[in-house]
TrEMBL record:
Main location (coarse class): membrane
Transmembrane portions of the chain: 12-33, 53-70, 79-102, 108-125, 137-159, 165-187, 199-217, 229-246, 267-290, 302-324, 331-349, 355-382, 394-416, 436-456
A Pfam family assignment: MFS_1
Major facilitator superfamily (MFS) profile domain mapped to chain residues: 13-461
Gene name tied to this protein: hsrA
Keyword field: Cell membrane, Membrane, Transmembrane, Transmembrane helix, Transport
Bilayer topology term: Multi-pass membrane protein
GO cellular component: plasma membrane
Name this polypeptide is given: Multidrug or homocysteine efflux system
GO MF term set: transmembrane transporter activity
Length: 472
């Protein structure tokens, strides 16, 4: 069997990581377009399908803190093979699901693999690349994160309309096998950095308990009965408080509390939560809005996501110089208001709205989202010292996953409370009103983020790294 040189394997490593990342990002963007069809196949209300989205995002958030320690303990190659295997197996189980419960459970398995894919892939690339090449290799890895959502909704629409929804998961299987065997033969040798610190199991349990009870807010109306959402939220806050007192003096804590003494990091995490809630709500709402309220086909609905993806890619070309020229404070306040204004405008789309107006509007939303994510991620990490960077990056990723799942849950709850409670049986004009009110409230949520950004210190970003590489 042919063997390849270490130098050749190092050159291929960004491609291998990008392929795995593309598989994960494509899967997430394909699903939203297919939700109405999956609901019809499983005999469910489309509004109740948010559990299939949230369960995946929640699983990623729960297992994400383990990925760094797991890679150090068992090696990056084994961790990457584990991630690909679990994600691919989860995809197969999703395709075989015959009920919403089995689909949600399969998505949890898929999410457990997805939690390892991105951080382990990024770690592998950074470990084999010279520091002066970080900008190039990370920029290359960002592309799948933008291309996946660009083609995902369209691909999902065509698969649902001309094949079946099962294929949105089955397409992951050949890609997974390709990545698995490519990793075995083509991943370069990566030296260990030594024995990792003892895993903070107590801290992990406290963090996961907080995440689980916070996520119960999303599911409580469907599966927990009359137990108040506020009760779950208070229990989540209690576990978070327990973790604070537990971890404040521990050096091996999963999330070092000292990070929050850095103003840009604290504001970046808080702002990221509100911005990502909007980032989770909008992609969930858009396909449902087009298909149920406006009566569009899945393929037409999916194609409407293309302008958002193209605009997001275009925004990458001028994001860094624009942020540097304006400064983090002015840029984030202005762009947040810009984004909320266009989401508000989406609340007035109706049956008579010209298609070109919708295309332009969604393009601006895609552009603003891309700029926002680039700026907020960089703000959060820009002043973090090297010794805390891996933990800060993990916490940012966890807040991202939790916020996205909360965004989906809040969007579904708002849609139900504003008139879409019957959903399938509701008349289109009632659904249209429900979506309009939901878009308006989601727009207001994003404004809260703008208020937080007022407190960004002027010194934030003086240690500028590579802004354009922090989009994911």
């Amino acid at each position: 069997m042919k063997t390849y040189s270490q130098e050749f394997k190092i050159k291929l490593m960004p491609w291998l990581a990008a392929t795995a990342l593309f598989m994960q990002m494509l899967d997430g963007s394909v699903l939203n377009t297919a939700l109405p069809a999956i609901a019809d196949s499983l005999g469910e209300n489309p509004l109740q399908m948010q559990s299939s989205v949230i369960s995946y995002l929640l699983a990623v958030a729960i297992f994400l803190p383990v990925s760094g320690w797991f890679s150090d303990k068992f090696g990056i190659k084994k961790a990457f093979l584990f991630a690909i295997s679990v994600f691919t197996l989860g995809s197969f189980c999703c395709a075989m699901s015959g009920s919403l419960l089995t689909l949600s459970l399969s998505r949890i398995l898929q999410g457990a693999g997805g939690a390892f894919l991105v951080p382990v892939a990024r770690l592998a690339v950074l470990r084999v690349s010279p520091r002066d090449q970080y900008a190039n290799v990370l920029s290359f890895m960002v592309l799948p994160a933008l291309i996946g959502p660009l083609i995902g909704p369209t691909l999902g629409g065509f698969l649902v309309q001309y094949a079946s929804w099962h294929w949105i998961f089955l397409i992951n299987i050949p890609v997974g096998f390709l990545c698995f065997f490519a990793t075995i033969y083509l991943m370069p040798k990566i030296d260990s950095l030594g024995v990792p610190a003892k895993f903070d199991f107590k801290g992990f349990l406290l963090i996961d308990a907080a995440i689980l009870f916070l996520s119960a807010v999303s599911f409580s109306e469907n599966i927990i009965g009359n137990f108040s959402n506020w009760n779950f939220a208070l229990i989540a806050l209690a576990f978070a408080a327990f973790y604070y007192f537990y971890a404040r003096n521990r050096k091996n804590a999963i999330f070092n509390i000292a990070m929050f003494k850095i103003p840009s990091f604290a504001i970046g995490i808080a702002g990221n939560i509100f911005i990502r809630i909007v980032g989770g709500a909008f992609p969930f709402l858009a396909p449902l809005f087009f298909q149920t309220a406006l009566g569009w086909t899945p393929s037409k609905s999916g194609m409407m996501m293309i302008p958002m993806g193209i605009a997001a890619l275009f925004a990458k070309t001028f994001a860094a110089p624009l942020i540097l020229k304006a400064g983090y404070k002015k840029f984030l306040i202005g762009n947040t208001l810009f984004l909320s204004t266009f989401i508000l405008a989406a609340g007035f789309i109706g049956f008579s709205t010209p298609l070109w107006v919708i295309v332009v509007l969604y393009s601006f939303i895609g552009m603003a989202n891309s700029l926002q994510f680039t700026a907020i991620n960089t703000l959060a990490l820009i002043d973090v010292p090297d010794k805390l960077m891996s933990r800060a990056n993990n916490l940012l990723s966890v807040s991202f996953q939790i916020s996205i799942s909360l965004g989906v849950a809040i969007a579904a709850l708002l849609l139900a409370k504003t008139g879409g409670i019957g959903f399938v049986a509701a008349k289109q004009n009632v659904l249209l009103e429900a979506f309009h009110l939901t878009y308006i409230i989601v727009s207001a949520i994003s404004v809260i983020g703008a208020a937080l950004f007022i407190f960004i210190p002027k010194s934030a970003g003086t240690k500028i790294a590579s802004i354009e590489n922090n989009n994911i």
